Amino acid sequence: MSGPWGRWVALCQREEDALSVALVRVAVGFIVAGHVAHLWASGALPLVWLDADHGGLRALDGGVLKHLGGAVPGVVYPWAIATMLAAGAMVLGLTRWATIATWLGFWVLADLNGQAGGSYDELLASTLFLLSCSGAHRRLTVLSPSSTTSLACVRWLMVGQLVTMYFSSSLQKVSAHWVPWGDHMALWYILQQPTWQRVPMLWLAPWAWATRIATQVSWWFEFTSPLLLLAAWFRHTRTRGGWLRSQFNRLDARALLLAVGFGMHVGIEATMEVGSFSLATLALYVACFSPAEWRASLGAGADARCAERRHRRRWVPALRATSTRP
Amino acid sequence: MGVRPPLVPHLVAAAVLWHALAMVFDATPDTSAGLRRQAWKEPTVQAEFDDYAAMLGVEEPVLEERLWAFATGWNEARSTLIAPFRRYLSLVHCSQSWQMFVAPHTTPSRLQVQEMTADGGWTTLFEERDPEHTWNASAFGTERMRASVFRWSWPSYESSWKRGCQGLATLRFAESDTSAVRCRFWQAATPSPGQVLDGSAPAGRWIREQLVRRPK
Questions:
Q1: Which residues of A touch B51 (CB under 8 A)?
Q2: Domain total for chain B?
Q3: Phi and psi for A80 in degrees, rounded to 5?
């Protein structure tokens, strides 16, 4: 095969060690299970996911669950338990079906009440779908799969998902308080909003200049996020020549961009309650690093810590086994 | 592993391309959610129009009409662009709506829930981010409840607000002998850092009050 389509087909056929996507899988499994468990423990689950006639705060048609009886306790609670169990099975890597079940369980719950959700619903559902299409269940698993590889293109779709989210978000931040030609007061106002703040934030007034800087950093980070995809690709193909590629790799532009994003999400988590958004986003950061990079940073340490348990555990030996692969 | 039929690589490549295109096209800004004249009259939205009108040197009503026309046209073009992908995105639940903090709310509202006392007065049960009035605060503090409460304060969610307050009252009636529950929002402009420092907080007002009496 030759020509653009032939090259594209060849690119999409490339397989790689499934370690990176497996790490995303483990993270997302914990996030989904933790999210539903937290909602349940806080007492919010019936308020947001049950119909108003059954203890909820809004009339719900039940979405897909209406075929099972609707948004009623006898349906929603078992569904939530099943979703948590599926997410747990997904963490353990119990086949692709665990991931598919988590994807199904989560979006059905999230779709119950469109007024009680956030962007993390879409991000988690999209990530779970991509994980379902990947070989993420073949690594860091308690099973013994016959293959430990995954299509590399799925990991790149995850990086693309991350970049698409950031860039699209920046295009929609058109308020005069966000844009570079505005007053840069967006984060000051957002942090004063009772809906999202963790605690009252008027104490920030003497340091309002910091919120102006953070506003600009956030907007520019999101607006220039397509550079992250480029930087990750240049990092992946760093042995190739080219002036631009070498400039990007001189300081590892990908790591620098991700460090800025990480700082932004730490700031969000410290000051605002936005559900699982930051964790779901950071889970996709994992996909920005190749399996070889993860092996290099995790493999040796994990092996040493768990050497005595090798005969009982499969995760770490699996990690070690692939550490010698090209 | 068996040998893949020759068609499979092409199908995989087509699927990856399809997903990538669907993701990118669907992520183009969707203005339909904001195309409500009623919402455009909210103080926060009006303040944005004022800022941009001053910046661009045009009258605010003129700018508003031009934006309305642009947003309507944009939406029509966008709908055409994503039409082939809509069914797929819906099926795989990978829609790309990334409207996150597009415009900060400069006149935010704070939910307050009160119950009637025996002497006909009111005692506060819950007030957002108030450490002294914490009835059901752990549930109301979750992001999903915050998202609901945020919407309740907007006029376009009037019916949800009424049902929501009814639900809060039902919760309270189940644990207390009170004869009525009142829900309302305190709406006030967010002070600027300068106003905070000199202590001149903007005035606020109670809005969207709902009174629910215990059913006989």
A1: 176, 182-183
A2: 2
A3: -65, -40
Per-residue pLDDT tens over the stretch B195-209: 999 999 889 999 999
d(CA A111, CA A101): 15
Please, how many CA atoms are within 13 Å of residue A67, restricted to the half-sphere of its CB? Answer: 3
Query: Is residue B78 domain-shared with residue B159, that is, in the same domain?
Result: no
For residue B65, give its domain range.
7-92
| Contact across the interface for B146 and A196, Cβ inside 8 Å | yes
B8 to chain A, any CB pair closer than 8 A? The answer is no
A64 to chain B, any CB pair closer than 8 A? The answer is: no
Kindly state whether residue B116 falls inside one of the protein's structural domains: yes
Q: What pLDDT does B21 receive?
A: 98
CA B134/CA B110 separation, integer angstroms: 13
- Domain ranges in chain A are 14-147, 177-289, 293-326
Q: At what angle do helices A19-42 and A73-92 cross, to 10 degrees?
A: 150
Q: Looking at the structure, tell me whether residues B164 and B205 fall in a common domain.
A: yes
Classify residue A215 as exposed, middle or buried by CB count within 10 Å of its CB (0-12, 13-18, 19+). Answer: buried
Joined together, the tokens standing for residue A182 give 């505005």
Contact A193, B120 (CB under 8 A): no
Question: What is the model's pTM?
Answer: 0.92
